[in-house]
Specification:
Structural class: mainly alpha
Order of helices and strands: HHHHHHHHHHHHHHHHH
Largest sheet: none
Strand content: under 5%
Shape: globular
Radius of gyration: 22 Å
Distance between the termini: 41 Å
């Protein structure tokens, strides 16, 4: 197989890995709320959903190890804690969200049953698939993802060329920032850190590739995947904006996607899209829990009992959290993402920089500063913004939940000056 074929093969595999329910339900509501400013929202959203994930894959192309490699320059212990916290958040939030989306898009509109029953049956099936590591999902995913992509592109195409009502004015004060922060909810940057390791393992198993060859394949396949996501995100944000006068102002994310499907494909098309998204959610949930169970199994000396125990804990958590509304799960994720995403972005960027600019001291100081300046963004979800107003008013961009940006850039330059102007190196 030529490298070009491998690039497209891995590119499509990465796209399928990134492409989940959150990628479909989040962009339309952003466009819906932004109106004529949808392109500004799209720019912000693309930064955290395509640019940063692409950089994470480029980081993997350089490191060519596991996700643990991203935090090792802070310290190996930090890296383990960081990975465990990341996986715990994934267990508690995006995995259960797949069940909630399935209920709201495919089960409730047809059967009208309670969410707890959907969640119970859903994660019961997920448990069976994860424990048995069935190959059925590979076959399902091979045909399912192209079908969903085709349906979504059809919705976008028909939506763009059809006559549209006049757009309602934007309800956003900072469209670019709101798009950027909403991109956190896709977990795409975190997914890039996880899935880059999958490509490394696959390449190592398939042949004797040189370092430069693997680096080129990973980077270019990441570009293929991100280009596909860019087209779908931009299209969904655009039609959400174009049709924002056709739906009530308090519409939910899932109802908006179903409504757009009805507007373009009719009621049967909307039902079909709902069922397809439900199946995509299921494959995503299985893939997430398999990767988490594999991580903890490896952490405990490949003890298979840990694999089964982790799977059971993930599924029990999924049953409980997955019975809540999608909107509640998305809102509940905000404090965790306000901590995890800034640190992840820093680790990704630092790892793609030349080593002379990103030694151990730089990693440590930047991560520490980000942690300190992210605390108000995390705690104000519980204590209220007024509590932190005296601090926020003095920190640039803090009112936009980006108070960590300027201090972390400053910490980067300060740490590099400390390394260069001391008679010894701490990097």
């Amino acid at each position: 197989m030529t490298d070009t074929k491998r690039i497209f093969l891995f590119g499509f595999a990465l796209f399928a890995g990134f492409f989940g329910a959150g990628n479909l339900i989040l962009p339309p509501l952003l466009g819906y709320n932004s109106g004529a400013n949808w392109w500004l929202v799209a720019l912000g959203f693309m930064l955290t959903t395509t640019v940063i994930p692409l950089l994470s894959l480029i980081g993997h192309a350089k490191l060519q190890g596991t996700m643990l490699e991203f935090g090792n320059k802070v310290s190996p212990k930090f890296s383990i804690v960081y990975c465990i916290v990341m996986y715990l958040i994934i267990i508690a939030l995006p995995a259960p969200r797949t069940a909630a989306v399935t209920h709201e898009m495919a089960v409730a509109p047809i059967l009208g049953t309670k969410a707890i029953w959907t969640s119970l049956i859903y994660f019961g099936l997920v448990f069976l698939f994860v424990v048995n590591r069935s190959q059925a999902l590979n076959i399902l995913g091979k045909y399912l993802t192209p079908l969903i992509v085709f349906m979504v592109l059809l919705i976008i195409l028909i939506g763009v060329i059809s006559p549209m009502p006049e757009m309602r004015a934007s309800s956003m004060q900072a469209p670019f920032v709101e798009g950027l922060l909403e991109g956190y909810q896709t977990y795409d940057a975190l997914a890039g850190m996880v899935m880059g390791g999958f490509i490394i393992i696959s390449l190592n198993k398939r042949g004797n590739f040189s370092y430069d060859q693997k680096r080129r394949i990973i980077a270019k396949s990441g570009l293929v995947a991100m280009l596909g996501l860019f087209i779908i995100y931009a299209g969904l944000i655009a039609i959400g904006a174009f049709y924002n006068n056709s739906f009530p102002e308090d519409i939910t994310r899932t109802d908006l996607l179903l409504g757009l499907a009805s507007q373009t494909l009719g009621n049967i098309g909307a039902t079909f899209v709902g069922v397809l998204v439900a199946l995509a959610c299921f494959t995503t949930a299985v893939a997430i829990i398999v990767s988490i169970a594999d991580f903890f199994e490896a952490l405990f000396n490949h003890n298979h009992k840990i694999y089964a125990l982790t799977t059971a804990i993930c599924c029990l958590t999924g049953i409980i959290v997955g019975s809540f509304d999608v909107g509640f799960i998305i809102d509940a994720a905000i404090p965790a993402l306000m901590l995890l995403y800034p640190i992840s972005i820093a680790l990704i960027i630092l790892n793609i920089l030349p080593d002379r600019w990103a030694g151990s001291l730089v990693f440590k100081l930047v991560v520490l500063v980000i942690f300190i300046f992210s605390l108000p963004d995390i705690l104000k979800s519980f204590l209220g913004e007024d509590f932190f107003e005296p601090i926020i008013s003095y920190v640039p961009l803090a009112h936009h939940n980006l108070g960590w940006v300027i201090p972390s850039i400053s910490a980067f330059f300060v740490a590099n000056m400390m390394v260069r102007f001391k008679p010894y190196s701490m990097s």
